[in-house]
């Protein structure tokens, strides 16, 4: 990788998948799938093959491993031949220099990548996994899924601390379950800013669901490549070296080894099982896979729960929309149909107030700003919002005229009815003042120093993780996808109640 400077503005652009290095516990061999020549090899391969890295590049595996002896040659040839490109990842056990290794195979473009790491023959995981699976299944019924998950995963990997870290709507995250050694300070309930896990890292964790950082103090091993090869894309690799920024973060936290497993729901990264050890700790590949299996079970339970609850909420709102549709067909004016019957626009979301704006008239229900304030907001919407639907739980970030109206309107959901620019429905949510416990006060540490070929400047992960309480103001509760869908369905129903009839109703209404 060419030199890259990490600073405040590009932290999420650091190309962490092509750092050109692996962690010290492993050894990597990249073989071109067509020519069977070695195109990448980590500098430390001698201890496995008895051949220097520089002497392996550009040679066929048979040629370069000739010096390693027939046995090693056959072993390597075995998995190269067997590996089928259709299968994403394969693991082989292989004996090298009298030691047992796993060869973890993945593909990167036209390169077959074999990552070798020590295998622990004594590891027997079946009973532990069965036990973990059955406890997690039982706990799901008792609504203790996440607590049980961290407990079972801790018992499998034996780390000092195991947490469930859940991503929130604004990209920040919160520790929602934790099990730890008694002497450690709890992190449960603490919030962490979005920048602690930058965007490109989250993307990688969606593709490659397990991340082991075995020891923050070891020096990474460079991966050599042939002149014609570009830096190896290690998206699918397990031994990928870690960004120096994240290593510093872990050291600031006092953590020596870290392990995380992705929880993915509906193709979105819902959270991570985040695990810390305060001394260096390598986890055998089979145990990592077992922990992932438990996490996958948790993901599937969470997926089902979310689907069930979304279905219930959506069904509730669909019912309201149906009732409003009946009102619309029955009544002569939009005002009568939408704000004067038993079921009104106010039932269609969790808002505390709503305004139906038709031409110059404003009809309100519940807790709303006064008519003058709504009128001003309406004019701002006409001028500034081109989309048919706009929602925010922090209006103050968009609109300068929020003085005196936050109590009822810190958050708004605005839908244009589409008949006239003046016609819109505005739902209001009141200010929700609450506190958030952050792990450390956000601070900018100015540093400028070189680590390898990376210059770190302007930003460093914070050094203090002491709890810091923020009082959150000017914000309402968030608008859910179901609420926004409900508002959009109402517009559709209004328009569907025949264009002609809507026009008639509007005329009568004036
Ligand atoms: C990665 N940051 C991560 C990971 C976690 C966190 C879990 C995944 C890798 C791992 O398991 O260690 C953050 N860890 C946390 C949080 C908790 C925790 C929030 O235990 C809460 C309890 N980090 C910064 C800044 C930058 C940064 C300022 O604080 C960048 C400028 C970067 N974090 C960063 C990068 C990665 C990362 C680049 C990816 C590491 C990798 O996979 O190579």
Number of domains: 3
- Roughly what percent helix? 25-40%
Q: Supply the CATH architecture of the largest domain.
A: 2-Layer Sandwich
Per CATH, the superfamily of the largest domain is: GAF domain
Radius of gyration: 29 Å
Question: What is the CATH class of the largest domain?
Answer: Alpha Beta
Work out the strand percent. Answer: 25-35%
The biggest sheet, with number of strands, parallel, antiparallel or mixed sense and barrel status, is: 7 strands, antiparallel
Silhouette? elongated
- Identify low-pLDDT runs: none
Order of strands side by side in the largest beta sheet? Answer: 2-12-4-3-7-6-5
SS-based structural class?
alpha+beta
Number of DSSP-assigned strands: 23
Cα(first) to Cα(last) distance is 68 Å
Bound molecules: biliverdine IX alpha
Tally of separate helices: 14
Mean pLDDT: 88
Q: What do we call the CATH topology of the largest domain?
A: Beta-Lactamase
GO molecular function, one term: photoreceptor activity
Organism: Haoranjiania flava
Protein name: histidine kinase
Keywords: ATP-binding, Chromophore, Kinase, Nucleotide-binding, Phosphoprotein, Photoreceptor protein, Receptor, Sensory transduction, Transferase
Topology, please?
Blueprint: E1 4-6, E2 21-22, E3 27-32, E4 38-42, H1 46-49, H2 53-56, H3 61-64, H4 70-82, E5 90-96, E6 99-108, E7 111-118, H5 126-141, H6 145-157, E8 161-167, E9 173-180, E10 191-192, H7 199-207, E11 210-213, E12 221-225, H8 244-253, E13 257-265, E14 268-277, H9 285-330, H10 334-339, E15 353-358, E16 361-366, H11 371-384, E17 389-392, H12 406-409, E18 411-416, E19 424-429, E20 434-439, E21 448-451, E22 454-457, E23 467-472, H13 481-496, H14 499-509
Parallel strand pairs: 1-22
Antiparallel strand pairs: 2-12, 3-4, 3-7, 4-12, 5-6, 6-7, 8-9, 8-14, 9-10, 11-13, 13-14, 15-16, 15-19, 17-18, 18-19, 20-23, 21-22
Helix pairs in contact: 5-6, 5-9, 6-9, 9-13
The structure holds biliverdine IX alpha.
Biliverdine IX alpha binds at residues 6, 11, 14, 16, 163, 165, 173, 175, 187, 192, 195-198, 201, 211, 213, 242-243, 245-246, 249, 258, 260, 272, 274, 459, 461.
């Amino acid at each position: 990788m060419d030199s890259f400077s990490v600073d405040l503005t590009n932290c999420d652009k650091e190309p962490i998948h092509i750092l050109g290095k692996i962690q010290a516990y492993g050894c990597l061999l990249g073989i071109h799938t067509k020519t069977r020549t070695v195109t990448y090899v980590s500098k430390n391969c001698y201890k496995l093959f008895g051949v220097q890295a520089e002497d392996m590049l550009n040679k066929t595996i048979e040629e370069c491993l000739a010096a390693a002896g027939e046995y090693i040659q056959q072993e390597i040839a075995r998995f190269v031949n067997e590996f089928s490109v259709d299968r994403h990842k394969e693991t082989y056990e292989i004996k090298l220099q009298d030691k047992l290794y796993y060869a973890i195979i993945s593909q990167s473009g036209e390169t077959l990548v074999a990552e070798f790491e020590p295998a622990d023959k004594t590891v027997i995981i079946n009973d532990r996994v069965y036990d973990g699976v059955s406890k997690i299944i039982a706990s799901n019924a008792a609504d203790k899924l996440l607590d049980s998950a961290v407990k079972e995963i801790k018992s499998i990997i034996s780390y000092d601390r195991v947490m469930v870290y859940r991503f929130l709507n604004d990209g920040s995250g919160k520790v929602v379950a934790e099990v730890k050694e008694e002497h450690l300070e709890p992190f449960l309930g603490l919030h962490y800013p979005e920048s602690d896990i930058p965007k490109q890292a989250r993307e990688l964790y969606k593709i490659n669901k397990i991340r082991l950082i075995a020891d923050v103090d070891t020096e990474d091993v460079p991966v050599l490549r042939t002149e014609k090869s570009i830096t190896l894309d290690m998206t699918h690799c397990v031994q990928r070296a870690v960004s120096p920024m994240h290593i510093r973060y872990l050291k600031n936290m006092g953590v020596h080894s870290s392990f995380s497993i992705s929880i993915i729901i509906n193709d979105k990264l819902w959270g991570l099982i985040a695990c810390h050890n305060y001394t260096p700790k390598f986890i055998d590949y089979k145990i990592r896979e077992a922990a992932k299996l438990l996490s996958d079970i948790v993901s599937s339970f969470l997926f089902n729960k979310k689907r069930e609850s979304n279905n219930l909420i959506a069904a509730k709102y669909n019912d309201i929309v149906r009732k409003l549709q009946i009102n619309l067909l029955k009544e002569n004016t939009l005002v009568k149909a939408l704000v004067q019957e038993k079921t009104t626009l106010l039932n269609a979301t969790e808002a505390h107030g709503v305004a139906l704006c038709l031409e110059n008239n404003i009809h309100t229900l519940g807790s709303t700003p006064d008519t003058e304030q709504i009128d001003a907001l309406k004019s701002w919407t006409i001028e500034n919002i081109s989309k048919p639907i706009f929602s925010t739980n922090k209006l103050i970030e968009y609109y300068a005229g929020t003085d005196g109206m936050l109590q009822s309107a810190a958050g708004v959901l605005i839908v244009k009815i589409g008949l006239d620019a003046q016609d819109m429905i505005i739902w209001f949510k009141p200010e929700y003042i609450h506190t958030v416990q952050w792990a450390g006060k956000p601070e900018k540490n100015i540093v400028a120093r070189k680590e390898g070929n990376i210059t770190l400047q302007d930003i460093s992960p914070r050094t203090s993780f002491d709890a810091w309480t923020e009082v959150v103001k000017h914000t309402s509760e968030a608008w859910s996808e179901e609420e926004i869908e409900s508002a959009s369905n109402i517009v559709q129903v209004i328009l569907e109640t025949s264009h002609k009839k809507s026009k008639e109703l509007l005329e009568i209404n004036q």
